[in-house]
């Protein structure tokens, strides 16, 4: 259903900046989701690999700021340093989204609504999730191998990775899981907004805001965390077992938060709006 374009004082349609109605966003999601689910496994793996590499560049920028802040002010609280590092971290999200690569957490909305609308198969949804996750982890691991070469990056940057990792891997399991639910929810809101907002500047602002929130709030995004933890763990007392446990919990939490916290409710909202519109049309008939 087409939306009514409202005039704006600056000559740009308000809808172009603020986005569209929920049912229009879902309709676009159906077609985009069908296309995503039809891709080959190799295509998804490669796209995910690139996404892991690109988000790792955002992690590198953030670790550089973390190391600089904590080095200059050793008594500074980690959250203060995270708030500063979060200003530059969204570089990674910008590269991923504007560069058309992909994160595992981007697939909690669009492919799901396509399957619900019977425009894709559940098996292809699981394949998309698995392949994008493996690709992301592979990209993060490749960047970790590159950046872990001795003296490839400065010691202060390594200390930034280590501080982030030590905090993340020291959290209780329940805290990791709940934090991951929040991250999945936030990322699926971002996916929704990327469908809804058509103005390029608006998209960039949304990406930057969500990227800042993800990093500053220190929620457990499985790919973002992997981009830093894969490098930092060897400079802490933690082991690969701790890393694997964190990845497993954050992956599960991201799924719950994305699908259960956003997608289900957006689908319900759209279905109810459609029923309401049909009732109004019958009332006018």
From TrEMBL:
Gene Ontology cellular-component terms listed: plasma membrane
Keywords: Membrane, Transmembrane, Transmembrane helix
Annotated localization: Membrane
Entry membrane topology: Multi-pass membrane protein
UniProt xrefs under InterPro entries: Aquaporin-like (IPR023271), For/NO2_transpt (IPR000292)
Pfam family, one: Form_Nir_trans
Main subcellular location: membrane
First and last residue of the signal peptide: none
Membrane-crossing residue ranges in chain numbering: 44-70, 76-98, 128-149, 169-193, 205-231, 243-268
Molecular function per GO: formate transmembrane transporter activity
Sequence similarity: Belongs to the FNT transporter (TC 1.A.16) family.
Name of the featured protein: Formate/nitrite transporter family protein
Source organism phylogeny: Bacteria, Bacillati, Candidatus Dormiibacterota, Candidatus Dormibacteria, Candidatus Aeolococcales
């Amino acid at each position: 259903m087409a939306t009514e374009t409202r005039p704006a004082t600056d000559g740009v349609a308000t809808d172009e900046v603020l986005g569209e109605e929920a049912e229009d966003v879902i309709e676009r999601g159906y077609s985009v989701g069908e296309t995503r689910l039809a891709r080959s496994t190799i295509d998804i793996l490669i796209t995910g690999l690139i996404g892991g590499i690109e988000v790792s560049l955002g992690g590198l920028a953030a670790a550089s700021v973390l190391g600089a802040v904590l080095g200059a002010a050793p008594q500074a609280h980690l959250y203060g340093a995270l708030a500063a590092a979060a200003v530059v971290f969204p570089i990674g999200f910008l590269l991923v989204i504007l560069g058309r690569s992909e994160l595992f957490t981007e697939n909690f909305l669009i492919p799901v609504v396509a399957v619900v609308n019977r425009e894709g198969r559940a098996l292809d949804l699981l394949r998309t999730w698995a392949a994008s996750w493996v690709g992301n982890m592979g990209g993060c691991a490749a960047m970790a191998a590159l950046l872990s070469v001795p003296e490839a990056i400065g010691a202060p940057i390594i200390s930034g990775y280590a501080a982030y990792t030590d905090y993340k891997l020291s959290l209780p399991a329940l805290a990791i899981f709940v934090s991951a639910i929040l991250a999945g929810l936030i990322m699926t809101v971002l996916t929704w907004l990327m469908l809804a907002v058509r103005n390029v500047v608006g998209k960039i602002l949304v990406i930057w805001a969500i990227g800042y929130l993800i990093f500053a709030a220190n929620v457990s995004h499985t790919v973002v965390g992997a981009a830093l933890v894969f490098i930092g763990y060897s400079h802490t007392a933690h082991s690969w077992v701790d890393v694997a446990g964190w990845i497993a919990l954050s992956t599960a939490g991201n799924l719950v938060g994305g699908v259960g916290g956003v997608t289900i409710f957006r689908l319900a909202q759209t279905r109810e709006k459609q029923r309401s519109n049909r009732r109004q049309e019958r009332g006018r008939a």
